[in-house]
Amino acid sequence: MNILSKVMEIEGWGDFHNYSHGQVSRHSCGNVEVLLIEGLHIWADGIDSEHEVITGTSVDEVLVLSKHASASETPAMTLHAIGVPGEYPHGEVARSGGLTGSVVPPSTRFGDLFRTMSRISEKHQLGSDYDITLEATHHGPVLETPTLYLEIGSTAKQWGDEKAARVWSETISICLGMSEDSTASNWEGAGDVMIGLGGGHYAPRHRAVISSSNVWVGHILANYAIVFEEQEGVRPSGPWVHAVRTAVDSTRAAFPGGNVFAHLDRKSFKSWQRQALLDLLDELEVPVLRGKQITAP
Questions:
Q1: How many domains does the structure of the chain reveal?
Q2: pLDDT tens-digit map of 115-132
Q3: What is the pLDDT of residues 167-218, one digit of tens each?
Q4: Which residue range is the domain that position 28 belongs to?
Q5: Nearest-CA neighbor of 188 among 249, 104, 256, 250?
Q6: For residue 273, what is the enclosing H or E element?
Q7: From 60's CA, which of 33, 52, 210, 231 has a CA 20 to 30 Å away?
Q8: What Rg value do the Cα atoms of the chain yield, rounded?
Q9: Does 111 map to a domain?
Q10: Which helix (H) or strand (E) holds 247?
Q11: Of 259, 254, 248, whose CA–CA distance to 284 is shortest?
């Protein structure tokens, strides 16, 4: 709600109108709406389709304004795609929303939002108080539309921080074409799209590559979502194959025409795990690039 209050300070919003699924305000730029719902968003399965049916407007992507919580309580500005590809058995309701073994396509603005938020955080000197970061794909809801979560963490002190919320509102305004200085980066059907595989939840190695390049960004899977059970034969057992395939398919669906490639946090895998991943990615026709091969144009 803190982020929303700052977003609504952007010039051009109309009044809120009540619908059966929530309150809706439309922006004068013509392609952005705010939806305020009563329930917790991680359980709002199908809210994108519901919004289309009720309001008659099409939904091309969803950005969820959210608070972030972590055991370390580290202050953080963060964003991430959603889904639970590493949890199984597949097809069940996951602990934090979503369906086990499935993901939601990521918004094509992932990389642009992260880099813009990082730049604006630096302008507001937020980096000394917050980790400027991103996260691996996790939690619900189940949606069909490309989605990202935009978050402030990790305690009530940060959730209510107006300065942090203002960073997100400026980022949203710029990236969604809602202000005169907008530099909206829309997917035009061509470009290199990175999938990150391996590492911890906050994906520091993938984050470094994204920060230092203009690459488009798809799903990022931490090690906990790429589960190898036993080293046996040519292909180890475990749900890792399904998780990687799902992330690749979902990213390709979000970026039609894109050149999808993978970046591995190589040190986070054992040699046999890394080789298994390389074999699968070759089968999926997904090239693997090292960080030094991914540079800004």
A1: 2
A2: 999 999 999 999 899 999
A3: 999 999 999 999 877 877 899 999 999 999 999 999 999 999 999 999 999 9
A4: 2-175
A5: 256
A6: helix 271-283
A7: 210
A8: 19
A9: yes
A10: helix 240-254
A11: 248
